[in-house]
Amino acid sequence: MSNVLLIAAIVMLVLLFLKVPVYISVLGGAMVYFVMNPGVNPIVFAQQAIIGTEKISLLAIPFFVCAGIFMNYTGVTKRIMDFCEVVTGRLPGGLAQVNVLLSTVMGGLSGSNIADAAMEAKMLVPEMTKKGFSLEFSSVVTAASSMITPLIPPGIAMILYGCIADVSIGKLFVSGLGVGALLCVTMMILVGIISKKRGYGTITTEKLTLNRFGKALAPAILPLCLPILIIGGIRFGVITATEAGAVAIIYALLLGLVYREMKLDSIVTGLKESVATTASIMLIVSAASVFSWVLTKEQIPQQLTNWMMTVITNKYVFLIVVNVFLLIVGMFIEGNASMIILVPLLAPIAANYGIDEIQFAMIYIFNNAIGALSPPMGTLMFVTCSITKCKTAPFIKEAVPFYILLLINLMLLTWFEPFTTLLVDLFY
């Protein structure tokens, strides 16, 4: 590594620690490299910033973002929540269980963990505290369950990873169903254990009969069909991931007409929110693309690959090292930015070790999801706490069992490949 690149990396990290916006921090680091390297044409800086956002497949991001936002204006959330209440009503910690299941189901509709956390923090946390749940526990469950969202199709993280590493987005979507379900089930078990220990009650004692299930499912069936429509369309080659995003928008608008809850001003507001959210993502993509070019020019991927293959001979040791590294990175750097910079470095090395590309992708995305919940810069933690008015210190203390659960799940994905590839092998 050259001294110039080292200085550029230090500048970027310092800016990140100073809480400068991610895209400015990354661009700042890249700019230092170009300024201190007169042999490099500065025009390349602008070229790479633009080229990084030109992939057609990246259009899926604004499409799915827009579809998710439109879904929130169609009355879907209330129908899904009623369905979740019926399914989990008899389990210990009823409303907390609804929280987890709702995040899992809504992940297939919104694709945004921040939006999911904000929604549930406003809708469910006040109800949970009224029912006797502590504010800290309610906030932690909300934030922790929201990290399931990026793992459920159409998660934005999977689309971005697929574009960067040239991995089938359809296969990532299918794998995400299994990984998301694993995290959902294990988190519901943990919530049940804690709730039973603390005496948090159920919503109802009424048995879940086929009739009750059918009545709850009927209003929710149309939005629940969206993930099936997306995955099925991509799997059978009817539509691409980008086209699936456009289909999702049309589907959301049709639901708005069916439920008669979406108004013209809601569409305008939804479009404004979509533009703002997409812009924030694409600015990070653009900035990180420039820094990624710098790393490639300095041949960091090749050097890192050669060093890794020399020092580490076992693929599981490599995965453990990567997990530790990504968990630390996730504490300080936004997931999308780290993905664009690090995936081109790490994915080829993983391939050299014979690690399945889908398994490595889900391990990477899972690590990013944990980072969003981890102090000191976890976005899910701060978004949830800012809405619920929960203090950070008690939040972190309450979250310890959930951190342990997440690490156990991460180890399962690391050591047992079928957790990430079984559904892919069945469907593809």
Summarize the structure.
This protein has 428 residues and is an all-alpha fold. It is built from 21 helices and no strands.
Task: Describe the overall structure.
Helix 6 (94-110) runs antiparallel to helix 11 (169-198), helix 9 (135-146) runs antiparallel to helix 19 (379-388) and helix 15 (300-311) crosses helix 17 (335-352). The chain has 21 helices and no strands. The chain is mainly α and 428 residues long. It has one domain (3-427). The model has no long low-confidence stretch (mean pLDDT 85).
Features:
mainly alpha, 428 residues
Helix proportion: over 70%
User: How much strand?
Assistant: under 5%
Radius of gyration: 22 Å
Total beta-strand segments: 0
Mean pLDDT: 85
Helical/strand content category: mainly alpha
Count up the helices: 21
